[in-house]
Specification:
Elements (H helix, E strand, L loop, with lengths): L8 E6 L10 H10 L2 E7 L3 H10 L5 E5 L11 H11 L4 E10 L7 H18 L3 E6 L2 H11 L5 E3 L6 H9 L2 E5 L9 H9 L5 E3 L21 H12 L3 H15 L6
Parallel strand pairs: 1-2, 2-3, 3-4, 4-5, 5-6, 6-7, 7-8
Helix pairs in contact: 2-3, 4-5, 8-9
């Protein structure tokens, strides 16, 4: 990857808290910084991964999101939500997530997923934190619950895979749209349209590493340095420079997560 052009990027969705990085996490972070990735959000998906995300915030440029994914709705009750609430108030935690609905994997009944989603949306509102939302084959129910929650929500639709029209609906609800590695794939026309037409001031970039590596690294472990590939593809689609897309998406992330530039 050509890192000759100096830029500043914010990878808004990483799972640096998983065991895939246990053997070389310092080297992964060094490569990210060499590629211009100055800030990264480490995202939890259950209690254990949320604790691990918080632990990583001692490192410069790393921030955490804590929350419980819909897959674990059947195992989550008031005690677990109480622990998430406690973690959400720790230093370095800037968002609640990832939360949402997943009707593709169907690892928990839909009503239980919906109840967990509502509870965490309410927690985010009470704690005045943005949300990181996971949505898979559940757009109609997700939109309905968010509309039901009312005004005052803010957050990001992580690894967005919906249509441009749906993206516009989410934006009216206070959400940003985050684009990941699939925008570099050769048959991702729907994602190309979103990446091209979503207002630049509502766009974020992410890797969702260690998954969804960009085309050049497809089939390999993804890592934050590769978010540069995502930004470069968006720049190509929009007819902008890489520097323009990097600066805009980093600024958007800092605004959403209330982070001062560093």
């Amino acid at each position: 990857m050509d890192n000759a052009i100096p830029i500043t990027l914010f990878d808004t969705h990483t799972h640096l808290n998983v065991t895939a990085y246990d053997d070389d996490r310092p080297a992964v972070l060094a490569r990210a910084r060499q590629a211009g990735v100055r800030q990264m959000l480490v995202v939890g998906y259950d209690l254990e991964s949320s604790r691990a995300a918080v632990a990583l915030t001692v490192q410069d440029g790393l921030y955490a999101a804590v929350g419980i994914q819909p897959h674990y709705a059947g195992e989550t009750g008031p005690p677990e939500l109480g622990q998430i609430r406690h973690l959400a108030q720790r230093p370095g935690v800037v968002a609640l997530g990832e939360i949402g609905l997943d009707y593709y994997r169907n690892r928990a009944p839909h009503p239980e997923q919906q109840d967990l989603f509502r509870a965490q949306l309410e927690m985010a509102r009470e704690l005045e934190l943005p949300v990181v939302i996971h949505s898979r084959e559940a757009t109609a129910d997700l939109l309905a619950i968010m509309q039901e929650a009312g005004q005052g929500l803010r957050g990001v639709m992580h690894c967005y895979s919906g249509t441009l029209e749906q993206a516009r609906e989410f934006i009216t609800l206070g959400m940003y749209i985050s684009i990941a590695g699939p925008v570099t794939y050769p048959k991702a026309a729907k994602t190309w349209e979103v990446a091209t037409h979503v207002p630049l001031d509502r766009l974020l970039v992410e890797t969702d590493c260690p998954w969804l590596a960009p085309q050049r690294y497809r089939g390999k472990r993804n890592e934050p340095a590769y978010v540069r590939e995502v930004a470069a593809r968006i720049a190509e689609l929009r007819g902008l420079s890489l520097q323009e897309v990097a600066a805009a998406t980093a600024r958007n992330a800092q605004t959403l997560f209330s982070i001062t530039d560093s």
